[in-house]
Specification:
heterodimer; A: about 160 residues; DNA polymerase, domain 1; about 40% helix; globular; B: about 210 residues; two-stranded antiparallel ribbon; 4 strands; about 35% helix
Chain lengths: ~160, ~210
């Protein structure tokens, strides 16, 4: 058995240490918000946070994640009210929606490390997340919106 | 009658002794070639500009191969493939060489190679040289690269000891285990390491030219 801490909850999973973390998250923990896209770290649909970093869970082995802090889209906020999730709704970003849990998890790392990103910063941070519907401009808009919310929250404290 | 105890003395036949001495000398020499050090642990530099330059020409072939140069790019985006194209997704070097934001190297590059054709190769410390010490290989002539490697202000502040040790760094040895679908450097690791140490211990001469 391998211990995984996902969204602050402990799971004991009966998994091969080489199993992709994505499999464990979806099939063993039952958290299906994280998506399978390419399986080879090329598209970003499977991005989750491992100790705060936006790893691609399709190529991250369970053994690397054991005992570490994993956060999936389900754990990003208590009530789907992370400022990025709110901004995504306000900007009506998704079309088919398949890639957006990965998009939001990547954007969350960007906003944590750069609260005031430029278009160039956003492009740099998000260039590993592919959206076949082509919602890139709305993604950029939503990130600016979320950054603005973040700045307002910070200044009102 | 006085008894003389027999003292048993074994002597190796002369020929055997010579062979043993020769073998020991050969092992010592091989060890020196692989480590650049004598038994005392001290690096011995015996200047030989011709031998040194010849060795660097071998070293240069490896350093300019995709397995080495792709992570020593002239710009801030790593390279990929045997044609040294810019890394898909355009990950950036970042201040410390480990990437930026959601695009850090270890987000995709795992501690070991990911199985499968053209999947991300792995190493626990996968990174580019840092922004303040880029250690560029791409576009460097043999002369420029040799000078750069021997300049502590441009080689990551490495001493001769550290340069020799660098040949055993797992990021270097990893070039010979690059994962499926990637070509190997143009010579064996053993031959590269021998050439590297030979170049350094014969005086680290730069090939002539610009």
């Amino acid at each position: 058995m391998i211990s995984l801490n996902i969204n602050q909850k402990d799971y004991q999973v009966d998994a091969d240490p080489d199993m992709p973390l994505l499999w464990a998250i979806r099939d063993l923990a039952g958290l299906t918000g994280t998506k399978f896209g390419c399986g080879v770290a090329q598209c970003g649909a499977c991005v989750v946070h491992l100790n705060g970093e936006a790893v691609r869970s399709c190529v991250t082995k369970v053994s690397r994640a054991a005992g570490q802090k994993i956060v999936t889209i389900e754990g990003l906020s208590q009530n789907n009210d992370h400022r990025l999730q709110i901004a995504w709704n306000e900007a009506n970003v998704p079309q088919c929606g398949y890639c957006h849990s990965g998009q939001i998890m990547s954007a969350a790392v960007l906003l944590r490390e750069n609260p005031n990103p430029t278009d160039e910063d956003i492009d740099m941070a998000m260039s590993g997340n592919i959206c076949r519907c082509g919602t890139y401009l709305r993604i950029r808009k939503a990130i600016h919106l979320a950054a603005e919310m973040q700045r307002k929250e910070s200044s009102s404290r | 009658m006085k008894h003389h105890p027999k003292t048993k003395t074994h002597f190796l036949p002369k020929r055997t002794a010579i062979i043993i001495v020769a073998l020991l000398a050969a092992v010592g020499l091989m060890s020196f070639e692989l480590t650049g050090k004598h038994d005392s642990g001290k690096i011995i530099v015996v200047k030989d500009s011709v031998g040194s330059v010849a060795a660097f020409r071998q070293v240069y072939k490896v350093l300019m191969s995709p397995r080495c140069m792709n992570c020593h790019p002239a710009g801030d985006i790593p390279l990929q493939g045997d044609d040294n194209h810019l890394h898909t997704m355009s990950p950036r070097r970042g201040p410390d060489g480990t990437g930026m934001y959601a695009m850090k190297c270890s987000n995709c590059h795992q501690p070991a190679n990911t199985p499968g054709l053209h999947t991300p190769p792995g190493n626990p410390k996968w990174h580019l040289p840092p922004a303040d010490m880029k250690m560029v290989f791409q576009g460097r002539t043999p002369h420029e690269l040799a000078k750069q490697i021997m300049d502590p202000d441009r080689n990551g502040h490495k001493s001769m000891d550290q340069l020799i040790a660098h040949a055993s760094d797992t990021l270097v040895t990893g070039a010979w285990h690059p994962g499926a679908g990637r070509t190997l450097p143009p010579m064996s690791y053993k031959a590269f390491k021998k050439a590297w140490i030979t170049w350094l211990t014969k005086g680290a001469y730069a090939p002539p030219g610009k």
